[in-house]
Amino acid sequence: MTLSMLQGEPTVITVGAGLLGEALDAQAVPRVDVAWRPPLPGTEEALATVLADPRRVRANEVAAGRLVSARPQLVGVRPAREALDLPPGTFLHAGPPIEWERASGPMRGALIGAMLLEGLAADPEEAERRLAAGEARLDSCHHHRTVGPMAGVVSPSMWVFEVRDAEHGGTAYCSLNEGLGKVLRYGAYGEEVLTRLRWMGEVLGPVLAATLDRAGPLDLRALATQALQMGDELHNRNRAATSLLVRELAPAVVEAAPTHAAEVLRFVNGNDHFYLNAGMAACKVGADAARDVPGSTMVVAMARNGTDFGIQVSGLGDRWFTGPSGVPDGLYLGAYGPQDANPDIGDSTITETAGLGGFAMAAAPAIVRFVGGDVADAVAATRSMYEITLAEHPAYQIPALGFRGTPVGVDVTLVARTGLLPVVNTGIAGRLAGTGQVGAGLVSPPASAFTAALEALAGESRAQIG
């Protein structure tokens, strides 16, 4: 064996040794590079315990199977007070639960705007005083089968998309999309913002409700499948999906509300992100179907409130595991720069949770013009996510990867074993209340959220193993 190795050409395998690999390349020595990374620091014992849990493999098959088999359908548009049984003075927000004292600038701005919209304050100063005094009840959207982009604030008079899972029977909700720039979800609350929101409540919501009553349920899974093959990744690029949505609904809009049809269609058509909110509810209803599978290590929610980034795991109920939100790295609008950016915020990471957004960037090469980087980066981002996910989505396929299904079902144990964190592309909100959007980019979740979840899973596994 030794003589054979000395006489023949060696076969070299390099593992994590960058300098050695480069030296061999310089000498034209054939080699096989193995992409290996050490596990997240301090996770070895917990990881070994969870991997030994006899429930884990089957539990993850069940959870991932429920997620990818969901059939979300847009069935209606309703006022939040009715759909969510939301009483006056109660506001839902994005991300894990948070109090006013810890709320970021854009979260505070959106809550101030909601107070003004609901007539609970005469001016921003009064709204801020009443919020600081605890006169409004705040709760996480996720606790109410709801998701909200950016600040994610939902108040009783706002209208919400209602999405039902035809496969598993669940229902999820999301607010209507206002557009980009100075909008409530980015923390702006000026008169232009409130005027738009009032019109959405008085005209847009009722027209869409009447439209869906006439048009019947809209298959969002089929729509998302088409949009992926038309260049969307369905988080920060929704141009194709919005166009498909308009095409499906336009005839019924004209029939249901001829008086307002032109202004409604003009508003939707002028907002390339209009589909996003319906798509978020579709992802939420699928992820919720995968909840509460004992022994499962699959993530069913990733969400940010502008201060904390939190995850929830199928086998751990409704518990949140959090770490500090990071500031996205990306492109900025006008004269804005990193100094103006708030840490990551919003429930829209439900798209990555369901295998879209950052996980599907290879399907949307044009997204790099919005979030930075180049096409190769987008493809690499998607490819890397196969290393930390449990499945490939059977419907959501990527043409550039030979119609391979998007990576879906983030596994806490795979994150710990590889050290890879989920890729998220996102809008960037201004850190000061009232600013609005300042850019868009990429961000990584904090590793501490996943290590905390792993420790909790290990505790559950120890109880199971005995």
Question: How would you describe this structure to a colleague?
Answer:
With 466 residues, the chain is an alpha+beta fold. It has 3 domains: 33 residues, no CATH class; 199 residues, v583 fold, CATH 3.90.1700.10; 214 residues, Enterococcus faecalis V583 fold (Alpha-Beta Complex). It is 40% helix and 20% strand. Strands 6-8-7-3-9 form a 5-stranded mixed sheet. The chain has a 4-stranded antiparallel sheet with strand order 12-11-10-14. A 3-stranded antiparallel sheet has the order 13-18-17, with no helix packed on it. The longest helix has 25 residues. The model has no long low-confidence stretch (mean pLDDT 93).
Keyword list:
466 residues; Enterococcus faecalis V583 fold; 17 helices; 3 domains; v583 fold; globular; five-stranded mixed sheet; alpha+beta; four-stranded antiparallel sheet; single chain
Brief digest:
The protein is of the alpha+beta class.
Topology summary:
Elements (H helix, E strand, L loop, with lengths): L1 H6 L4 E4 L2 H9 L4 E4 L9 H8 L4 H14 L2 E8 H4 L6 E4 L11 H13 L6 H9 L4 E4 L5 E2 L11 E7 L5 E5 L15 H25 L2 E2 H9 L10 H18 L4 H9 L4 H16 L9 E7 L2 E6 L7 E4 L4 E4 L12 E2 L3 H4 L14 H4 L3 H11 L3 E10 L5 E7 L1 H7 L5 E6 L7 E7 L3 H19 L1
Parallel strand pairs: 1-2, 4-5, 6-8
Antiparallel strand pairs: 3-7, 3-9, 7-8, 10-11, 10-14, 11-12, 13-18, 15-16, 17-18
